[in-house]
Design goal:
Layout: H1 14-26, H2 32-50, E1 62-67, H3 71-85, E2 89-93, H4 101-112, H5 125-131, E3 134-138, H6 152-159, E4 166-169, E5 189-193, E6 207-211, H7 217-222, E7 236-239
Parallel strand pairs: 1-2, 1-3, 3-4, 4-5, 5-6
Antiparallel strand pairs: 6-7
Length: about 240
């Protein structure tokens, strides 16, 4: 009842994931910025392991990062910045930007690193397939509930038709955080942050990574997370 596999990490329900997040902020005094930086760096690192630049059909390796309106989108902006440092050529689409200093700062950082922002999302799947070797889905995270609002409904329906791989941050966007979604996005990669969510049990892509190596031992114990040991100084770990 507690996990997905006896030896692996426990898969979290939505309320539990939110409780752990809150505790990291209120009890452990982490800031949102701090955890977002570590999460985004983990995502970029995992992507570089699964899709090294040499595996891309084009040089330089072009990546489209699609960012949603909340913290998952912030993770995407951080991820784009680190991918640029790692030698990729990210382009960001960020249609709904929160009016908050954190997100404005992350956007400016990307712009100052010459990361282009697309004002219009390509409606033709073939256009995305021709221009990019990977799409990073940073649209919705573990607090997602209810219906997908525009423009994200149209974006997700286009992403369902592309043939290049999709790497989803924390939750494949549009999926129920616990039940998944049979007719939804089918990412090739999932990067679970902190601990996997129950939806990860429905993930059938090639690469499942765990990222966000910042969970204090006491918190891990309290929630019985059963996190596998990260190797050496790695900030990510590939799950079986």
């Amino acid at each position: 009842m507690h996990g997905h596999s006896a030896g692996g990490p426990r898969y979290l329900g939505q309320e539990e994931a939110q409780a752990i997040d809150q505790e990291l902020f209120t009890e452990y005094k982490f800031s949102v910025d701090q955890l977002m930086e570590l999460a985004g760096l983990s995502c970029a690192t995992a992507i570089a392991k699964a899709y090294p630049p040499s595996s891309f059909p084009m040089s330089p390796p072009a990546v489209l990062v699609v960012c949603g309106p909340g913290n998952n989108g912030g993770d995407g902006l951080v991820c784009a910045r680190h991918l640029k440092m790692f030698g990729y050529h990210p382009t960001v689409h960020y249609p709904k930007r929160p009016n908050k200093p954190l997100f404005e700062g992350l956007t400016t950082q990307c712009q100052k690193m010459d990361i282009p922002f697309l004002s219009e999302f390509p409606t033709e799947a073939a256009l995305i397939d021709g221009l990019y070797g990977l799409v990073v889905d940073a649209i919705f995270g573990f607090s997602f509930k209810g219906a997908v609002r525009e423009p994200f409904g149209s974006i997700l329906s286009t992403l369902q038709r592309i043939t290049v791989p999709i790497a989803s941050i924390d939750i494949p966007s549009g999926w129920d955080v616990e039940k998944g979604r049979a007719d939804g996005l089918r990412p090739d990669m999932l990067i679970s942050l902190t601990a996997p969510k129950k939806a990860a049990a429905h993930f059938s892509g090639r690469y499942h990574f765990l990222g966000g190596r910042f969970v204090p031992a006491a918190l891990e114990e309290k929630y019985g997370l059963n996190l596998p040991p990260y190797p050496g100084t790695e900030c990510v770990l590939q799950l079986p």
